[in-house]
TrEMBL record:
Name of this chain's protein: Mannonate oxidoreductase
Pfam families in the record: DUF2027 (PF09640), Smr (PF01713)
Classification via InterPro entries: DUF2027 (IPR018598), Smr_assoc-like_sf (IPR036781), Smr_dom (IPR002625), Smr_dom_sf (IPR036063)
Domain of life: Bacteria
Organism annotation: uncultured Muribaculaceae bacterium
Stretches assigned to the Smr domain: 313-383
Gene3D superfamilies: 3.30.1370.110, Smr-associated-like
PROSITE patterns, sorted: SMR
């Protein structure tokens, strides 16, 4: 490419000279005192700027060394290549400690109050419990009774056998959570696993329970009182029984016209009105062993009002419940009864054990299933 100061000749006509200036693609050539505009592509460089003509011999058409020296000043300095950043070392991940029962999904949504003794002023922390050997990628959504669409509350991943805090709620926020929806998929990292079905469950929360002390109790996954709503139990989606009162009322209301027709048909064909079953209720046989009996000794399950009751009165009521169930089933040899007393400080548990050892010495005592009841129950076998 020609530049200012180069000696050039015209490609398509006779003549040439020195380039005095260049504008866009037009070079202005001093040809014997006259400045002639010529297209750059129609010029041939015969002596680059900075070269001296060789008068002793043939004139060089192109001097590479002089050309390079003339161009070096105009060449931009190349920037040094940016250093290549080394990848950050991968964070260490502790291996997952799997449990024998963790191959089945067990997911629970729990609400933990900040002050269980003053529920009307308490905040509630929503906690997702993952009691399985799987990573759970999930979305939790909510909506109020008036809303038609769902609002996402939390999207994320909870690791195997972990608890994850999702949100903090006040009483004024609870109506927004009248209905919840939970969707998830389960997987394991870096190892083969049994494919689990995707989970999609929605349910209505009973918001009145957030105001009832007896609804909060220590559970399998918490030593402190919580309100639990199972989502998946042993791989099966937990779907609470929802009763539609209007449908029940409609089903129980038999139109008068249908009643009259039924009476006429009964008279015409002498329809038998039915006979009572001859099978006796198993519970009426005092010696027959029944399925496992569960007795919840939490005071809220034994009475609806605690007005005027001292702690000793509550304890006596709980012990009376133990006596009654033991006496009612004393003839059922081999009968198993679980008394749910909770963990707490151990006052009720110790009182129950003392009563059973003193008044029912032949009974066999042991801790109930930890998986089902945690540390808060005693299994009694009648002998």
């Amino acid at each position: 490419m020609a530049r200012i100061g180069d000696t050039v000749r015209f490609l398509n006509s006779v003549g040439g000279g020195v380039i005095t200036r260049i504008e866009d693609k037009i070079a202005y050539v001093d040809d014997g005192g006259f400045e002639t505009p010529v297209l750059l592509k129609e010029l041939v460089v015969v002596l680059p700027a900075g070269h001296e003509p060789d008068n002793k011999g043939a004139k060089k058409m192109f001097d590479q060394k002089a050309y390079d020296n003339g161009r070096r000043e105009a060449e931009p300095v190349k920037a040094a290549p940016a250093p290549v950043a080394e990848p950050a070392p991968k964070a260490y991940e502790a291996p997952v400690e799997e449990t024998s029962h963790g191959e089945k999904l067990n997911l629970v949504l729990a609400f933990e109050p900040s002050d269980v003794k003053h529920l009307d002023k308490s905040e509630f922390t929503a906690v997702l419990v993952n009691d399985s050997n799987y990573f759970i990628s999930f979305s939790l959504m909510r909506r109020s009774e008036q809303e038609r669409g769902w609002t996402a509350v939390y999207n994320g991943i909870v690791e195997p056998n972990e608890l994850l805090n999702l949100a903090a709620l006040r009483h004024e926020n609870l109506p927004d959570y009248e209905k919840i929806a939970f969707q998830c998929i389960a997987y394991k990292k870096d190892k083969p696993f049994t494919l689990q079905s995707p989970v999609s469950v929605s349910r209505k929360l009973d918001l009145t329970k957030f105001h009832k002390f007896h609804c909060f109790r220590p559970g399998l996954y918490s030593d402190t009182p919580v309100l639990e709503f199972p989502l998946v139990a042993d791989g099966v989606v937990a779907r609470p029984l929802e009763i539609n009162s209007s449908e029940i009322k409609e089903a129980m209301t038999w139109p008068k016209q249908e009643k009259d027709i039924t009476k006429e048909l009964s008279k015409k064909f002498r329809v038998d009105s039915g006979r009572k079953s001859g099978h006796a209720d198993p519970a009426s046989n005092p010696r027959k062993v029944l399925p496992l009996i569960e007795v919840d000794l939490h005071i809220g399950e034994l009475t609806d009002s605690l007005v005027g009751m001292e702690p000793k009165d509550m304890l006596e009521m709980q012990l009376d419940a133990v006596r009654k169930h033991m006496k009612d089933n004393s003839a059922r040899i081999g009968q198993k009864i679980v008394f749910i007393h909770g963990k707490g400080e151990g006052v009720l548990r110790n009182a129950v054990l003392q009563l059973l050892k003193k008044e029912f010495p032949k009974a066999e005592l042991q801790d109930a299933s930890f998986r089902e009841y945690g540390f808060g129950a005693t299994l009694v076998t009648i002998h």
